[in-house]
Each structure stands twice: as structure tokens, then as C-alpha cells.
Amino acid sequence: MDNVSNQSEIAVIDFGSQYTQLIARKLRDLGVFSEIYPYTRYQEIVNADNVKGVILSGGPSSVFDEGAPVVEMALLECGKPILGICYGMQLMCKMLGGSIAGSDKREYGPATIELIDKSSFMNNTPDSQNVWMSHGDRVDSLPAGFKAIARSGSIEHAAAVDVDRGFYCVQFHPEVVHSDHGMQMLENFTRDICGITEKWSPAEFVDEAISEIRQRVGDRHVLCGVSGGVDSTVVATILDKAIGEQLHCVFVDNGVLRFDEAQNVETDLNSFLSRPIVSVDAKAEFFASLAGISDPEKKRKAIGGTFIDIFKKTANSLGELHFLAQGTLYPDRIESVSINGPSHVIKSHHNVGGLPAELGFELIEPLQDLFKDEVRKVGKSLGIPDNLLMRHPFPGPGLAVRILGEVTPSKVEMLQAADHIYIQELLDSGEYSNIWQAGAILLPVQTVGVMGDQRTYESVVALRAVTSQDGMTADWSRIPAEVLAKVSNKIINEVKGVNRVVYDISSKPPSTIEWE
Ligand code: XMP
User: Do 114 and 83 sit in the same domain of this protein?
Assistant: First the structure.
């Protein structure tokens, strides 16, 4: 479903930079709609009237590399303003007749630039400012018609423009938070240079999504899997507003959910959906499929396979359903379109595509152009309560990937109890909202302890909490020691079978958020 095709946008061409998604994100923060295109699809941008400007991203390649990503002159000649960042600058300057100097030395980190000429691109930014550099090559001589507008201690052409032809380029990364005035530059580019003044608004997004869904669905019926997570809750709510009782929501209890989760999801969703959700208790089937399995990928496959079987069976019992609604988000899609140098590591294990095509449904994916925090804004404008919208992400395979080793009902019960204490304490202490994601993990080791006069030999629970923008990178949360002390104390006292609690202080990369 393409619900934004007429909206003015900035096209971000992906040359594989780790920051490509960040550029799109920052533009969205300015209220400017943006889309990421693999560099091979530049022709679509040339032809699209709604694309008002183009940003060429950075990338890991050197313009001297064989097979380095390129675009054709047709893009540079399309008449839309173009901003080249880092590799984007070097490629643009090379194509237009400038020269690039290769270097084995990378300049990485903060730098100070001095403005040396006026340009609308740098409006409202100071003459001397901090930026973030990350490059090896640099532009040695500018193409004819360009003038340098900023230099740094180590490069002459930190920023350059050819205003008449609409070319702007920077060697540094305005999208990175350490470029103090980068947001102002992006705003100058999108608003003053590309002329985009419309703002993205969640309420308008909802209105448009609702009318598109109504038009597409007509009097047919839609199936929607709900998990209690933010994305599926927002999808179900938009659909409910659009088509009411033609929506059938199915919730599958796979036995590896959080404490009381099944009950809570049912109560929460039924409080605002027109038709009660269909709740399926499939705990026994899932435990049977997990029996004897310790390997994380096999666990994921077992859960994924069982889920599809149960979902299919339930769907068949609900009568004639034509569409399947899914909470696919924009980052899920760019992971799958970005080619020849994806801008970040692909999470191969994630069931991003949702249910397989052979189920035979047409897909409805109303959130497919949104980032996670935009989904939360949409949810807020729909009146969904904060306790649902601000929930931490939770993996599809649930506690099964937080129980290292074989999954059994008794281990699940132990972990649910520990996790519940942890999450409750984070909520009570106010720490929950500072954290992207938190959860407890049950380790497959026993350690010695002492309780009363008794020596114990019991399990270890690890606590994980991370801060993150999008789950792609993450840092461990600096939870106050007194909160951790309380959680540890409560878990060891109240959860039978646990005599030790540890806190995970690893960042991603090189670790991941989940332990499996
Ligand atoms: P990792 O562990 O890769 O996790 O750093 C990043 C984010 O993805 C979630 N995750 C999953 N979500 N199915 C899912 O639906 C999965 O198999 C899965 N594995 C990890 C994880 O909880 C975090 O939010």
C-alpha cells in the first residue's frame, strides 16, 4: 500500500553508509518525508515529481575502487537540488570534473570547520563550528562552477556549492549528532533550497491510511495477528477505525510470553476494538515443538513453524478472509531493498517478512513507511494508552530465546517470575521509560550460594537493559545501583531455584541485545 505517493519528499540514495538510515530519520524529525533508495534505482527519482531534492549518502567505498557504487549523469542533470555527503560529495565532484585525492589515512571523529563564504546551506550556523568527519579520500580540486564554503584544519573543501546548478556537498556528516549545526543545514537544504514546507503529521497519516484501507478493502474481511506489541496494536486500531467488524484479530499464546501477558493483551485490546480478539491457547503445541531443542536458530524455526500452523488453522475457522494486516515498519523494508552494500547488518533471524506468502492473503501494511517512534506518535493520536505504546520491544520467539538451553514449562515459569519482578521495579522506579528494551535471561549454569544455613546450588538470572534508537546498535543502560540491588534481592528471595543475579554490561555491537 503506497499511502504517501503524492507527498513531497527527499530521496536519500544509499551508497552503503552506516548513517543512511539516520539521514532519513533526521529529515523525518524535521517533519520532512524522506525515502531511502538503493543507488541502482536513481532513475525513479529523476522521474518522480514529488521528489523535491536528493541526498547522496556516504559509503564505505572509495571512488577509486573497482565496482564502487555510481549513479548516471542523468541524476545530476535532473534539475533537483542535490546534497552529497562524504562519499556522495566525492562521487558528485568526480563526475562533474573535480579531482579526488586518495588517502590511506582516515579522518574519523570531531573536527572544527570555518565558514569561508556565504551560502544559504549554512544559514543560521556560526562561522566556526564542530562537525563529525569520517573519511579517507577527499576532494582535491572542485569542479568548475563550485566554490568552497567551509574548510577544516585538515581539508580545504569541507563544504562546497554550485548554487546555480543546485549542487551542495559536505565532507562531514550533518546527520550525526556531533555535527552541532547539522540539523540546521538539513533544514536549510530541505526548506529553503528544495522548498518543502509541508509537515508530516500523525493525525493526517491516520486519516489517509483509513480512507485508503476502506477503499481497498470494500466489504471484504481482514485478518490481523496481534501480539500486544506497539506495532500490531497500532495496525489493529487503524484497521478497526477503518473497517470495524470486518477486522478479525488473532492472538496466539505460545507459552513463552511474559508473566500474565495473554490475559493482559486480551483485556487491553478488547477494551477498544469493535470485535473481541480471537485468543488461541497453543502452549502445549509450542512446548511440544520446543522439546529437546537447545540451538537458538532451531528454537526460532520450531516456534515460527508452529505459529504458522496454528495461525492458518485459526484463520480457516473464521470464514472468508481476504487480507492479512501486518505491522511491517520502514526499517524492515529498507533492510530488504538495500542492495550491494546494505547500510547495516541484516538481522537474518528476524521474522521481518511476517507470515509466508503461501497463506494466500493480500497484504495490508499501513505502517510500512514509518519508523518506530513515528508509530508511537500515530498510536498516541489514535488515543492508545501509554502503557501499550511505550512498551519495550519483545522478540517473536519470546522467552524461548532468553532461556539458554532447552525450554521447559518450569524454566519458563521461573523466568516469567524473575522478569516480572525486574520489569515491575523498572516501572516503579521510573527507569522503564529511559530504556529501549529490558528483560531477564535464564542461564544454563548453576552456582553455589548460601541461604540460611543451607548451601544452595541453583540457577543464575542475567538482567539485560539497553538504550537504543532502533535496536540496530545499543548500549547497556546505566540503571542506578540501588534499583539493581532491589531487583536482585527480590528475585533471589522470591523466585525459587535462583540464587544469583548478574547484570549484562555489553554493548551492541559486538554483542547483541538478546543472548540467543
Ligand atoms: P538482537 O538480539 O539481534 O535484537 O540485537 C535486536 C532486536 O530484535 C529483537 N529480536 C527479535 N524479534 N524475532 C523477533 O521478532 C526474533 O527472532 C528476534 N530476535 C531478536 C530483539 O528483541 C531486539 O529488539
Answer: yes
Does residue 340 share a domain with residue 442?
A: no
Residue 1 confidence (pLDDT):
39
Domain end, chosen from 193, 217, 245, is at: 193
Residues 6+ apart with CB under 8 A from 210: 238, 241, 242
| Cβ 255 under 6 angstroms from ligand 1 | no
Q: Are 13 and 39 in contact (CB under 8 A)?
A: yes
Tell whether ligand 1 has an atom less than 6 A from the beta carbon of residue 512: yes
* pLDDT at 371 (0 to 100): 85
Pairing of strands 167-170, 222-225: unpaired
Ligand 1 atom with the smallest distance to the CA of 512 is 5
Q: Looking at the structure, do residues 242 and 94 belong to the same domain, yes or no?
A: no
pTM: 0.79
pLDDT digits (tens, 9 = 90+) for 183-227: 999 999 999 999 999 888 899 899 999 999 999 999 999 999 999
Give the whole-angstrom CA distance, residue 103 versus residue 124.
Answer: 33
In this predicted structure, what is the pLDDT of residue 334? Answer: 66
Q: Which atom of ligand 1 is nearest to the CA of 472?
A: 6
For residues 270 and 186, state if they share a domain: no
In a domain, 510, yes or no: no
Region of residue 95 (phi > 0: left; psi between -120 and 50: alpha; otherwise: beta): alpha
Q: What's the rounded Cα separation, in Å, for the pair 104 and 409?
A: 56
State the residue range of the domain holding 320.
202-389
Kindly state whether residues 234 and 321 are assigned to the same domain: yes
Separation of alpha carbons 413 and 419, rounded Å = 10
CATH number reported for the structural domain that contains residue 321 in this entry: 3.40.50.620
Closest CA to 53 of 12, 3, 96: 12
pLDDT value at residue 359: 77
Total number of domains in the chain: 3
Segments in the chain below pLDDT 50: 1-4, 336-353
In whole angstroms, what is the distance from residue 86 CA to residue 17 CA?
Answer: 9
Q: In this predicted structure, what is the pLDDT of residue 344?
A: 36
Residue of minimum CA distance from atom 9 in ligand 1 = 395
396 lines ligand 1 (CB under 6 A): yes
